[in-house]
Amino acid sequence: MDKIIGIDIGGTKIAIGRADSNGNLEESVRFPTNVSRGYKAIVKEIIERTAELIKGQSIKAIGIGCGGPLDSKRGRVLSPPNLPGWDDVPLVEDIESVFKVPVYLENDANAAALGEFHFGAGKDVSNMVYMTLSTGIGGGIILNNKLIHGVRDSGGEVGHQTILPDGPLCNCGNRGCLEALSSGTGIAKIFREKLASGRSSIVSQWVNGPEEISAKIIADAAKMGDPLAKEVWDSAIYYLGIGVANIVTIVSPEMVVLGGSLTKYGDELFIRVRKIVRERARLVPTDEIKIVPAKLGDDVGVLGAVAVGLLGDDR
Prior knowledge:
The chain is 36% helix and 21% strand. With 315 residues, the chain is of the alpha/beta class. The strands form three sheets. A five-stranded mixed beta sheet has the order 3-2-1-4-8.
């Protein structure tokens, strides 16, 4: 059986895996990106590591998930903020010229959505929304078994819907994005600002300075009943629920899959998000829409890239 290679490229690390067409990951490798060495050196290592994984196996295709912006049709990466120097680089061409098999490029959040759709929580549905909740908030939307790309591959930016018009400034330049309110970065920033304004919290005793405060620490303090941590954490989940309700109202998917590090802090997040969606998405059959945790865990990036390679242009 021909194998698929999946390559997940991030600003901190790169993961490469070899899998069969059912998404069974046979072998994988992870290594630091070290962005300072530049595009050519990084691609050289990707090629070397991929060659080691192939080891004489018959390869059908290679899929790549990478942070955007990018042009999936032309196979080029267009200056992503986490990969400095990758300015309109021909990533697909550079990989394809070495391995002589079809290579396909996809936005990393869309790739993860395809991974969960084909190999994970969504493999039994036709309409699914995937959201990853970690440092930022990204996602992908699949309708009638097809990924929504939108203009210039910009579809599915679920983290940049406006929730609070006069809310905190987001990294994208807008105010009140879901990402600014409910991502790990946004939660920590809001918490630090409240501490700086004179509020008190047990968290101050756990860290050496405000820069060490993370969403995980805030979640832990909230579980212990710390008033400020609970206030910030509860608000983040509330705004997340509104964001999911907005998406459900527009898309009415069979399933919403939530993944990423912020979903690992207990079932309360899912219970509350489901409740908010029922209360706010009034015109869709919310009792038929499942809101569930992702299943692929830390392999979602590489298996998402495998799905990209498996589906090719038919995604």
